[in-house]
Amino acid sequence: MKRPVSSLALVAFLLAACAPRAAMPALSFASGGSMNTTTPATTVLSLIRDGLEKNDAAVVRRLVAPEYRQHNPMAEDGRAGLLGLLRTLPEPMTYDVRRVLQDGELVVVHSRLKLAGADFAAFDLFRVRGEQVVEHWDVLQPWQERTVSGRSQVDGPTEVTDLGRTEANRALVRDFLNEVLIGGQGSRVTDFISTQSYWQHNPNVGDGLAGFGAAMEGMAKAGVTMTYTRIHRLVAEGNFVFSLSEGQFGGQHVAFGDLFRLQDGKIVEHWDAIQEVPASSRNANGVF
């Protein structure tokens, strides 16, 4: 049986790995051509831009399947549940989309999200079949303006490259999660993480191995523990790999959303969001 990680060293390592609405940056569609071509990624972006941000029920009905499976615990299941949630919002949600990954029928959107007057670093994961969204997961973490590294929770490189390394990069991240974060092999960290260049977007940690050391000390003083127990989803496209995982953080049951950028067979950059899993949900699908 694999041993969950709860050591302060690994807690700090993960943390280290990891304005008004800006105009949406140019996005690359490495797997799906351009916005003139209908792909899972373009379907999701159309839903966000034309449906959710404009609170347009007709667009939502066209792009979301009636049997839409919802994993956000604040929303009821089905397309009707999503439309009901939108009707309760005091103003339409807005997305500052930074990255879009497409992996078969799965699409990850990484953004700064404004929802009900609050800002979040957000990962949204969608499943698309045909030209309709049929399933949705998300992990949201409150936005912090001040960060140790000076980088925000969503800035940094956006271009999808190295498509030929997609499966190798997926395997590397899977092994990192299983062997280091779940399996407890902390001594293998540098087998996966670059010791030369490692950029961090967790707001509480500085860059590189020095940031790791400072985080370890801080976590030890705070008495905070973390455990990764299971990987639920791995979405990969070229140099980016996203994972949706389950575990414990500070004694709470949480969802971990982690986005890794890889270069030359090593992880060189990391973004994350951590969200508590509530005891009850408005749907029966579970967060994962």
From TrEMBL:
Keywords: Signal. It comes from the Bacteria. Residues 1-22 form the signal peptide. One of its GO terms (biological process) is polyketide metabolic process. InterPro entries: Cyclase_SnoaL-like, NTF2-like_dom_sf, SnoaL-like. Residues 50-136, 173-270 form the SnoaL-like domain. PANTHER family: ESTER CYCLASE, POLYKETIDE CYCLASE SNOAL-LIKE DOMAIN. This is Putative SnoaL-like aldol condensation-catalyzing enzyme. It comes from Deinococcus yavapaiensis KR-236.
